[in-house]
Amino acid sequence: MLASALLLTAFGATVFAAPVFPDLTAAAEAPETIDTMTEYFTLLAEKVQQSRLVSAAPVCDLSNAVLPQSMSNPPLPPPSSGLVVKHVAIGRGTQNYTCDLSNSTAVPVATGAVATLFNVSCIAATYPDLAKMLARVALEFNLTQSEASRKLAPSNLIVSGQHFFTNSTTPFFNLDVTSDLKLGEAPCAREAGSPAPSDAPRGQQGEIAVPWLKLKARAGATGSLQEVFRVETAGGSAPATCNGAPASFEVQYATQYWFFEKPQ
Ligand SMILES: *[C@@H]1O[C@H](CO)[C@@H](O)[C@H](O)[C@H]1NC(C)=O
Ligand SMILES: *[C@@H]1O[C@H](CO)[C@@H](O)[C@H](O)[C@H]1NC(C)=O
Ligand SMILES: *[C@@H]1O[C@H](CO)[C@@H](O)[C@H](O)[C@H]1NC(C)=O
Ligand SMILES: *[C@@H]1O[C@H](CO)[C@@H](O)[C@H](O)[C@H]1NC(C)=O
Ligand SMILES: *[C@@H]1O[C@H](CO)[C@@H](O)[C@H](O)[C@H]1NC(C)=O
């Protein structure tokens, strides 16, 4: 894919369809939202300018994609040697929690997550700074709308998969959901975690960003998928206590998921 096409994809506008500006979430009224949107569209405009100036526009080459490094302690272990990037997605959805209401000192317990995955492979490989902003920007927009249009608001990035839990310790990724892109399925297990950087984007209600993770595929994975990384997280954490919380609740989050495969 050429740079110009890539940027149109990130911009959400094409010459074929009149762009319908998606709804911001009701919660996204904080002044930071305006700053986030301004930064994002300013960066996009810069990339468009730059791509006009270069004679050979960069093309989508996943071998150029570099997994963002965690700066926190402990850092995440790197991908195992010999693995290559197969896919990069923005995951946009909810982290689910429960609270034991019969216990006045109970803390929220994570019960899993549900997210829709949107294909950002080419953006991550070509414009990592733009990709970094996408989770934060996506968190400000209504997921119902992105799911209905199958495009990550406010972009034209299309759905590439689904993420959910099959039991409390098995995050599952299905990258076989679209007809043209069957990249495999992977039940996973957590191998390591690293706190999100202190300046990571907060959630719609100011929630801390969930940790960065390294997941290993369990038996039964297809498409040669071996490892999945959750990085550049935005929002998603539960409050520290169950004070005033219902028995079960959801916290909106967005993140990048990086899928690594063993080349055949
Ligand atoms: C999200 O979008 C859907 C469909 O357009 C709409 O019904 C819903 O009210 C919106 N939710 C929020 C929180 O804006
Ligand atoms: C989506 O990602 C894959 C690889 O991860 C890439 O080959 C493909 O071209 C992408 N599709 C679109 C429409 O961007
Ligand atoms: C988590 O949230 C999703 C999305 O709303 C919901 O469909 C699912 O039932 C919830 N799961 C749990 C275990 O609460
Ligand atoms: C109440 O919650 C606290 C904090 O999670 C826990 O240590 C304690 O064992 C719980 N008490 C009961 C009776 O479940
Ligand atoms: C969850 O599912 C995985 C994979 O099927 C299995 O290995 C594990 O034992 C299960 N754990 C629980 C707590 O059920």
Helix content: 10-25%
Bound molecules: 2-acetamido-2-deoxy-beta-D-glucopyranose
Q: Number of DSSP helices?
A: 5
Structural class: alpha+beta
Biggest pleated sheet: 8 strands, antiparallel, barrel
* Mean of pLDDT: 87
Number of domains: 1
Trace the largest sheet across and list its strands.
1-2-3-4-5-6-7-8
Percent range for β-strand residues: 25-35%
Distance between the termini: 24 Å
Taking Cα atoms only, what radius of gyration do you get, to the nearest Å? 18 Å
Describe the structure.
InterPro entries: DUF3455 (IPR021851). It holds the Pfam family DUF3455. Keywords: Signal. This is Malate dehydrogenase. Residues 1-17 form the signal peptide. The protein has 264 residues and is of the alpha+beta class. The chain has one domain. 21% of the residues lie in helices and 31% in strands. It contains five helices and eight strands. It has helices spanning 3-11, 31-53, 121-126, 128-138, 143-149; strands at residues 84-98, 109-119, 159-167, 170-174, 185-194, 212-217, 225-235, 248-261. The protein has an eight-stranded antiparallel barrel with strand order 1-2-3-4-5-6-7-8. A hairpin with a 7-residue loop joins β6 and β7. α1 runs antiparallel to α2 and α2 (31-53) runs antiparallel to α4 (128-138). The protein is globular and about 65 Å long. Residues 14-19 have low confidence and may be disordered. One 2-acetamido-2-deoxy-beta-D-glucopyranose binds at residues 103, 105-107.
